[in-house]
UniProtKB/TrEMBL annotation:
Residues 67-149 form the DNA binding protein Tfx C-terminal domain. Keywords: DNA-binding, Transcription, Transcription regulation. The keyword Cell division does not apply. Pfam families: TFX_C. It comes from Haloprofundus marisrubri. One of its GO terms (molecular function) is DNA binding. Gene3D superfamilies: DNA-binding protein Tfx superfamily, archaea. This is RNA polymerase subunit sigma-70.
Length: 153
């Protein structure tokens, strides 16, 4: 592994430092880690400690998660369909609410009821226990039919 290899990986994946929430070093570490390179080997390559590489990787992953959250927030703001799902709702009731809201807005959602329940459940994580919604949720559907789920307060 050399600097040219890392630069090529970043170029192939379209890393643009001026448009990214990641620093170049964070992008390098993530690119190498995603290719199975051990932190100790990355540390040797970069001339730093494994602990520093671990810190860089953790910061990069935090930044990626914050970027995802920001996109989800922006999509929820602009989604033509927004369904508030209150605490205590049965997960089995959510698809009908979403379908009804989509019909009213003229938006097509390309998911069956079981698929939609799985999407909501997976995205909500521990906000759903069994079939019960334990934390209020906002289910947004974009004009393209993509479903986005956020915890609501």
């Amino acid at each position: 592994m050399d600097e040219g290899d890392v630069t090529e990986i970043l170029e192939q994946t379209g890393f643009a430092p001026d448009e990214s929430v990641l620093t170049r070093r964070q992008a390098e570490v993530l690119a190498l880690r995603e290719r199975g390179v051990r932190q100790s080997d990355i540390a040797a390559f970069l001339g730093t400690s494994r602990a520093n590489v671990s810190s860089i990787e953790a910061s990069a992953r935090d930044n990626v998660e914050k970027a995802r959250e920001t996109v989800a927030f922006a999509e929820a703001l602009t989604a033509p369909v927004r369904v508030e799902v209150p605490e205590g709702t049965d997960l089995y009731d959510v698809p009908k609410e979403v379908y009804d809201a989509c019909d009213a807005a003229g938006v097509k959602v390309n998911h069956t009821a079981p698929d939609l329940m799985k999407i909501v459940s997976d995205a909500a994580g521990d906000a759903i226990r069994g079939r019960e919604v334990r934390v209020p949720l906002l289910v947004g559907v974009t004009s393209e039919g993509a479903v986005r789920v956020r915890r609501s307060t």
